[in-house]
């Protein structure tokens, strides 16, 4: 599936959409003229003339577009309130503010970028300012695109679609924070294409991870390279998306996804490779199924770390040789239709429940102790209220457990998220 930003860029360039729509309508009307009775031809001929004039005007507008008209802008952000159970756990957080900038070099070459500020402040050890995406999109024919630059790893659901209105809960699912660490960027080149109307694929050759950033409780998350990633041991990743009901049903939508990653772990920032011997393999499956008002989604992932003993010696922690995680979520769109009517009607309201299960210590190297806190789970129950499709108020409560002698604290969350 193409990143959400491609859809945003298309939305920001309405002239291209208008031109394609007018051309399609004009072609259809001309075909109709051959089969119409004489009494109906005059009306259709008038429509053809009007569409021809509109098409010519749209073409003139595109040809005369100046440099400023080639830019597109957007972004997303979220404000959080988190309250851990017990003393000293409440805080407010401008969790992230992301600015999107795009530029259309031509109809077939476009630039896309996301620049992110986290936690509203950047200082030594606090906050973060980073380029999350920066790539050039080359349309090379049909529905095939080549991306060159910094892209998002094609794993799970949230990493490539992480704008706040697109997922339930204030915080992203725990599995897609720890096991598939969104947001996870890769520097490289990739191809995305539609094989059939119901089957799409992505494949990337890119930078990999720094194995010395792995940890007992956060798994591979700390291994992401955000500055000048090493290419000492690059990675290959990809995914397939299958839409079995696309042609058969208007009452439900089903998407099935399969993704994978394989890369070496001897990579350090600015080419300062740590000298460790390790490889990471990931296999992940995900699915989304909408049936009327009910949305179901789930993700499962397994990770194998070859060289975990070497990484454990380098980090001073027990790095697992196997990590697992999965979650299931059900959401119900419960807003009555009467609430949607009128000039101040709301767009949607969702109630959801999600179960996450994570084990970052599933299998550890021989002779090394495992950390029982790595085996944990959480239930998240909450609501989302949408005044507009791209603006959401969220609230939820998270019940947490692990295999240690003292469970982690439960947490209450509220948030406001938007995209534009």
Sheet with the most strands, sense and barrel status: 16 strands, antiparallel, barrel
Give the strand content.
over 45%
The CATH architecture designation of the largest domain is: Beta Barrel
Average pLDDT figure? 88
Q: What class, by secondary structure content?
A: alpha+beta
C-alpha Rg (nearest Å): 24 Å
* N-end to C-end Cα span: 20 Å
Strand line-up across the major sheet = 1-2-3-4-5-6-7-8-9-10-11-12-13-14-15-16
Tell me the domain tally.
2
CATH superfamily assignment of the largest domain? Porin
- CATH class call of the largest domain: Mainly Beta
Question: Helix and strand string, N-terminal first?
Answer: HHHEEEEEHEEEEEEHEEEEE
- Determine the number of helices (DSSP H or I, runs of at least 4 residues): 5
The tally of beta strands, per DSSP, is: 16
């Amino acid at each position: 599936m193409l990143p959400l930003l491609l859809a945003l860029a298309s939305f920001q360039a309405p002239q291209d959409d208008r031109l394609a729509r007018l051309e399609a309508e004009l072609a259809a009307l001309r075909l109709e003229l051959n089969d119409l009775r004489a009494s109906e031809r005059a009306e259709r001929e008038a429509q053809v003339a009007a569409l021809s004039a509109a098409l010519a005007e749209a073409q003139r507008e595109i040809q005369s577009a100046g440099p400023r008209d080639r830019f597109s802008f957007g972004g997303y952000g979220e404000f959080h309130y988190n309250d851990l159970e017990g003393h000293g756990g409440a805080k407010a957080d401008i969790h992230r503010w992301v600015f999107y900038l795009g530029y259309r070099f031509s109809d077939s070459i476009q630039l896309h970028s996301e620049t992110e500020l986290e936690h509203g402040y950047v200082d030594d050890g606090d906050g973060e300012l980073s380029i999350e995406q920066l790539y050039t999109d080359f349309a090379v024919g049909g529905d095939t695109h080549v991306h060159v630059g910094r892209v998002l790893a094609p794993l799970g659901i949230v990493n490539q679609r992480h704008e706040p209105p697109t997922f339930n809960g204030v915080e992203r699912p725990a599995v897609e924070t720890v096991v598939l660490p969104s947001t996870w960027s890769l520097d490289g080149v990739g191809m995305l294409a539609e094989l059939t109307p119901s089957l799409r694929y992505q494949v990337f050759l890119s930078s990999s991870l720094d194995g010395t950033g792995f940890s007992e409780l956060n798994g591979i998350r700390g291994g992401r390279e955000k500055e000048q990633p090493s290419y000492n041991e690059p990675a290959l990743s990809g995914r397939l998306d299958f839409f079995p009901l696309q042609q058969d049903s208007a009452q439900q939508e089903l998407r099935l996804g399969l993704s994978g990653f394989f890369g070496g772990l001897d990579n350090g920032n600015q080419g300062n490779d740590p000298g460790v011997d390790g490889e990471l393999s990931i296999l992940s499956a995900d699915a989304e199924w909408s049936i009327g008002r009910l949305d179901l989604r789930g993700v499962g992932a397994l990770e194998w770390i070859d060289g975990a003993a070497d990484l454990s010696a380098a980090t001073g922690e027990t790095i697992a040789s196997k990590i697992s995680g999965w979650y299931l979520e059900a959401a119900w769109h419960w807003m009555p239709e009467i609430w949607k009517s009128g000039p101040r009607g709301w767009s949607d309201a969702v109630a959801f429940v999600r179960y996450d299960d994570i084990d970052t210590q599933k299998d550890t190297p021989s002779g090394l102790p495992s950390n029982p806190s790595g085996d944990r789970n959480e239930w998240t129950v909450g609501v989302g209220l949408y005044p507009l499709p791209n603006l959401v108020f969220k609230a939820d409560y998270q019940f947490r457990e692990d295999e240690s002698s003292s469970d982690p604290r439960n947490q209450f969350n509220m948030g406001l998220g938007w995209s534009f």
